Amino acid sequence: MFSLVATGFVDGGRLDLSGLPEVFGAERTWRVIGQTFAQAGLATALSLALGVPAAYALYRLDFRGKRVLQGVLTVPFVLPSVVVGVAFSALLGPGGPLGSWGLDQSFAAVVLALAFPNVGVVARMVGGFWARLDDTSEQAARVLGASRVRAWCIVTLPALGPAIASAAALVFLFCSTSFGIVLILGGTAFANVETEIYRLTVQFLDLRGAAVLSIAQFAIVAAALAVSAQLRRAGERAVVLREERGRGTPPRRVDAPVLTLVGATLLLLHVLPLTALVTRSLRDREGRWTLANYAALADPPEALPIDGTVLEAIGASLRIAAVAALIAIVLGMLLALVLSRRPRTRSLRRGIEAFDALVMLPLGVSAVTLGFGLLLTMNRPLGIGFDLRTSTVLIPIAQALVALPLVVRTLLPVLRGIPTELRDAASSLGAGPLAMLRTIDLPLLGRSAGLALGFACATSLGEFGATSFLVRPGEQTLPVVVAALIGHQAPESYGAGLAGAVVLGVLTAGIMLAAERWRTDGNREF
């Protein structure tokens, strides 16, 4: 961040604010900012409109196949943005099932694709809160004569306010900092701030303009998160929660519209794009069934815009993701252990809160900004005798920083749930900090560490924004290769890109679902 400030506002060691009128005086800058707010705002509204009914159906009702539907909603969240963009391109682009609708490279396509992973985010966040919400007040309103809809609107909806506000802020953050989806589906016509930073840096080498835009983006995201946090804290004071229900209530006839909406969402927004992606990856340009696109991954034609084979890129991605996940899980455990402590003094508690905000900084800073910052600062840092920007060392570091907040947020609730009395008892028996770590903290983390590792590995494997700045020719990762194939004009390039996107999606979803299954099985043991 300091390097971005220096690049944008310092010239020759002196403060220079000339970059501000240059950037914000351009008509395109304001058009891009407006498109960013419009895309993120509409995608957030759509995600809430579809996610809240899904939260009710999947967390308040009990029916056969519920866990399968929950899994279907989980998969879009862990899919790389490149895969999501390619899936909607396969659905809405030329030759796609809905290609005649004219939505390819359109604003509507971007909004739909941004909502694709975030409906599940809303359903999980709101549903987990809703499952623990005390419904006594709603039942009392019904007894006093309120209809079911009116009771929900005047009692339950305000109580859900904190969870909805938190989910809306997170979804807006994800949508406003989306890179791969907007790059593939929006192009230059519907660019957002993320893709504009990339364009200024890579195409025009305008580092000052990119730095000013990065700082402006960070300020917008920080303001949105601060407002949401304030609303969430204000609403939580009046909410009564209870232990989560083991099972929901059976669906009734009045629940049919909600279940129909949830089914239509899963079918049209989630299943249809992924089905189009897989189907088109198995067809050639004449529509005949073939495995040629997958064969091109191992033996690519010379016209393809890649160095080496896609299989080599897959191997490189897996190696880099493994290193990044290891870095993220080690740092995440250490940070979670520190943040889980409950200091007795107000000053220490505020210090922990400030440190928590610092740890979450990569979540508020876009991946493109993170990659741009590393590109600016890693020229022989700390006296190292070579330029780190010329190697792949920075890629796992960047990917680990992107995954770190998710790892900490997965581990932290488990550590904060450990009773203080347990540690006090161990301390009174003579156990030191290391002994308590070995006998209390690490065993209770249990399978949650596996889930955090899965998050880190899947996130690193599909990371595209920061990696696109740091990758070098001949050392491309799979998301970068897929984006290059999709955007190239060679006849075989698009089909190979579709096949690569399928492979990338299967790898990330498989890793995440295995980690989720491990966590679920482990819950029975603790």
From TrEMBL:
InterPro entries cross-referenced by the UniProt entry: MetI-like, MetI-like_sf
CDD domains: TM_PBP2 (cd06261)
Superkingdom, natural source: Bacteria
Protein name: Iron ABC transporter permease
Residue ranges of domain ABC transmembrane type-1 in the record: 33-226, 314-515
PROSITE patterns: ABC_TM1
Record keywords, A-Z: Cell inner membrane, Cell membrane, Membrane, Transmembrane, Transmembrane helix, Transport
Positions of transmembrane segments: 37-59, 71-92, 107-131, 152-185, 205-227, 256-278, 320-340, 352-376, 388-408, 444-462, 494-515
Subcellular localization: Cell inner membrane; Cell membrane
Predominant location: membrane
Pfam hit, one: BPD_transp_1
Protein's membrane topology: Multi-pass membrane protein
Gene3D superfamilies for the chain: MetI-like
Protein family per UniProt: Belongs to the binding-protein-dependent transport system permease family.
